[in-house]
Specification:
Blueprint: E1 2-9, H1 24-36, E2 44-47, H2 51-64, E3 68-70, H3 87-96, H4 108-120, E4 127-132, H5 134-142, H6 150-155, E5 160-167, E6 170-175
Parallel strand pairs: 1-4, 2-3, 2-4
Antiparallel strand pairs: 1-5, 5-6
Helix pairs in contact: 1-2, 4-5
Length: 178
């Protein structure tokens, strides 16, 4: 088994709604992300169906002449259907207890399983870009390194890019965006 992928957190957005557009800065960032891949061959782009993710992937797709495949398994994790004043603490707790579930939400484990199933289905020998969201990205990275957690989520930028190479039983993961 050999796969290469780039997991990308979407660019700066106007909000958290599934329909939130990128900000003016986010639109420029999306162009910069596309430029990052100028000398990198990619076979496929898969994105969350949320507008901010699709807008982040669009310049790259245009530059590479590729279609953006949408996959609902890449949508952001819903922590809860209720608003919490201490949502950050609750999010941290959900990294400490991967099976912790708040009303109307999904556990970190459930979100990680659905997101990593996308990676499991990628073709061997392929190079794929996955455009997703911060919490889900951290959980996807945790599929490859069990020590990824809340501090790593906190350190993610908008956008952010991790490069992952899977060869046999060896996986190399590196943050490549600065």
């Amino acid at each position: 088994m050999e796969k290469e992928l780039y997991i990308i957190r979407h660019c700066s957005a106007e909000g958290q709604s599934p329909h939130a557009d990128l900000t003016a800065e986010g639109i420029l960032q999306a162009e910069q992300v596309a430029g990052f891949f100028d000398d990198i061959t990619i076979d496929r782009i898969i994105s969350s169906p949320f507008v901010r993710a699709k807008m982040s992937a669009s310049p790259l797709a245009q530059a590479k002449g590729l279609h953006v495949d949408e996959d609902s398994r890449l949508t952001e994790r819903i922590l809860s259907s209720h608003y919490f004043d201490d949502w950050l603490l609750k999010l941290e707790d959900s990294f400490l207890d991967m099976h912790l579930t708040y009303e109307g939400g999904e556990s970190s484990h459930e979100a990680m399983e659905r997101a990593c199933s996308v990676i499991d289905e990628l073709e061997n020998g392929s190079t794929t870009v996955i455009m997703t969201h911060g919490n889900l990205m951290a959980l996807m990275l945790k599929c490859f390194n069990e020590y990824i957690g809340f501090p790593e989520w906190q350190s993610l930028a908008n956008p952010d890019i991790y490069h992952i190479q899977i060869t046999g039983h060896e996986t190399v993961m590196k943050r490549v965006w600065s």
